Hints:
By secondary structure, this protein is mostly helical. The chain has helices spanning 2-7, 55-78, 93-97, 99-102, 111-156, 158-165, and strands spanning 27-29, 36-38. A hairpin with a 6-residue loop joins strand 1 (27-29) and strand 2. Helix 5 packs antiparallel against helix 6.
Amino acid sequence: xxxxxxxxxxxxxxxxxxxxxxxxxxxxxxxxxxxxxxxxxxxxxxxxxxxxxxxxxxxxxxxxxxxxxxxxxxxxxxxxxxxxxxxxxxxxxxxxxxxxxxxxxxxxxxxxxxxxxxxxxxxxxxxxxxxxxxxxxxxxxxxxxxxxxxxxxxxxxxxxxxxxxxxxxxxxxxxxxxxxxxxxxxxxxxxxxxxxxxxxxxxxxxxxxx
Length: 210
């Protein structure tokens, strides 16, 4: 009886004004009378009345938001110059606890030993400077000899001179082979690069000219 009563609940256009169109809400009954469903509610509700807020309260809210944003900007500017910490270079806390035990007394160097170290440093500097000058002089001699030989070759033959200036890529052949994850498989047929395209073409023309 309840399903029959609900089935009669429907709003429709009155017979007196058939030209007017109104939205209605109706209940439909399926084959089983115990099951029913309703259409979405299409009735509107009155608009909520807007609350009048004091302008001073709105101004105070805007000021709080502005101060909060300025505080975050100052915090970012304060931390902008700080470098990102590196975990590998940080000292573990356990080491900080034993700093006093690990501390060593500074070594006291005598005046004679300091003089000896200074003399050794000066001697080493003079040796390295002499070695550098010898290398520069040897390089200059090699460049002059090469230029002299090229000038003599150009006097003999311009063609041979141009061939001598050309770059020879076979003088120092370079090949490299890096390590692999697994050892190579003997007589392995790699499937890469060869495949059969079985993609269907759905854009074939309807009429084919013969």
